[in-house]
TrEMBL record:
Every SWIM-type domain range: 81-113
InterPro entries, sorted: Znf_RING (IPR001841), Znf_RING/FYVE/PHD (IPR013083), Znf_SWIM (IPR007527), Zswim2 (IPR039903)
Lineage, broadest ranks: Eukaryota, Fungi, Dikarya, Basidiomycota, Agaricomycotina
Protein name per the record: Anaphase-promoting complex subunit 11
The RING-type domain, residue ranges: 189-235
Residue spans of biased composition, Basic and acidic residues class: 1-10
C-alpha cells in the first residue's frame, strides 16, 4: 500500500503539474521609475520652452527593430546635446544631468516623434517597452525614409547590386525632377520641425530632385553637417548647396568652457541664454529669507539650458 501511495504522489508531479507550471504568465515588465499620473508643473514649464524656443534635430541613429534611438539636438543657445530615447530617456545637458526631464528630451518626444500632448508618456522618467513600441510605431518617418525609390536604390547599392541601384536612382530622379512641392497644411520642416505651411516661399529652399522644401536657415546648417550637401528628404546631392551655405564657416563651431560643441554663430543663435520668461519664484523645499519685497530665495539656478 505505501508503494501505491508513492506512485500516486509521483503521478501528481507528472505531465499535468508540469503543464500547469508552463501555463503561468510571464512576469509583467516593471517601470524603472514611479509612474506620474499627470504632468508635473516643472515639466509643463519645460514644455513651454519647447513651444516658444527653436531647436534643431541635426542627426538621428536607430538600428532596425531596436526600441531605442539616439538624437543630436542643437539647443536654444547653440550647444549640441545627445538625447537617447529608450526605457529611461536621457540627455547629456546640464539640466538633465541634475536629474531633470529636460526640454531637449521633450523636444524629441513632442516635435520629432510626434507624441501628443494628451499622452502620459512624454513626461515619464521611465517607459515600458510597450510604450516605446507605440511611440516609435506612431512617429513620423525619418526624413531619409520618405522617398521609396531612393530607399530601394540605397539598399541595392549596399547589397552589391550597383547596376540596379543606378537604374533605380535614375528612375527616381527622373520622376521627381523639376517638381517644386509647395508645403501643405501639416507639413513640417524636417530640421527644426516647425510647420512651414503658409511660410513665405522666399524663406524656403527646394530640392531640384524631389521638390520638397525646408527653411533656408535650416538647410544651411544641414549643409554644414553633411559633405557633400544632400537633400534632407531624398539624400540626392543638393545642386544649390554652394549658394545655400554661402557666408557660413566651420570656424563658427567652438567647444565652450562647459565642454559642449556650440554652433550658435553657425546657426545664427545667441549663445547668451534668455531667461526673461523663466519662472523665478519659490519651489518645493526652498525657503524664503528676509521681508517681503526685500528678501530672497535660497535656491539653485532654475535655467533649463
Amino acid at each position: 500500500m505505501p508503494s501505491q501511495k508513492r506512485k500516486v504522489d509521483a503521478d501528481a508531479d507528472g505531465p499535468a503539474a508540469a503543464s500547469s507550471k508552463r501555463a503561468k504568465k510571464e512576469p509583467e515588465e516593471k517601470r524603472l521609475a514611479r509612474f506620474k499620473a499627470s504632468c508635473p508643473k516643472n515639466i509643463s514649464e519645460r514644455v513651454d520652452r519647447v513651444m516658444t524656443q527653436r531647436f534643431f534635430m541635426i542627426e538621428r541613429k536607430r538600428e532596425d527593430g531596436e526600441l531605442r534611438e539616439e538624437f543630436k539636438v542643437l539647443g536654444s543657445t547653440g550647444n549640441v546635446y545627445t538625447v537617447l530615447i529608450d526605457n529611461v530617456p536621457s540627455c547629456n545637458c546640464p539640466d538633465a544631468m541634475k536629474g531633470n526631464h529636460c526640454k531637449h528630451i521633450l523636444f524629441i518626444f513632442l516635435k520629432v516623434l510626434s507624441v501628443p500632448l494628451h499622452s502620459h508618456t512624454y513626461y515619464q522618467k521611465a517607459l515600458l517597452s510597450t510604450e516605446l513600441e507605440t511611440i516609435f510605431a506612431n512617429a513620423r518617418e525619418a526624413p531619409n525614409a520618405l522617398t521609396n525609390g531612393r530607399i530601394k536604390a540605397a539598399y541595392a547599392k549596399v547589397t552589391g547590386r550597383d547596376k540596379e541601384a543606378k537604374e533605380l536612382e535614375d528612375k527616381a530622379a527622373e520622376a521627381e525632377k523639376n517638381k517644386k512641392r509647395i508645403p501643405e497644411e501639416g507639413d513640417d520642416c524636417p530640421i527644426c520641425y516647425e510647420e512651414i505651411h503658409g511660410t513665405d516661399i522666399k524663406t524656403l529652399t527646394f530640392c531640384e530632385e524631389c521638390g520638397n522644401g525646408l527653411h533656408q536657415e535650416c538647410f544651411r546648417q544641414w549643409a554644414m553637417k553633411t559633405k557633400p550637401a544632400t537633400c534632407v528628404f531624398c539624400r540626392a546631392e543638393w545642386k544649390q548647396a554652394s549658394a545655400a551655405v554661402a557666408g557660413s564657416s566651420t570656424a563658427g563651431a567652438v567647444v565652450g568652457e562647459d565642454g559642449y560643441l556650440n554652433l550658435a554663430s553657425v546657426a545664427g543663435l545667441s549663445p547668451v541664454r534668455d531667461t526673461t520668461s523663466y519662472y523665478d519664484g519659490p519651489r518645493r523645499g526652498e525657503a524664503y529669507h528676509g521681508s517681503w519685497g526685500a528678501g530672497s530665495y535660497r535656491r539653485r539656478s532654475n535655467y533649463y539650458y
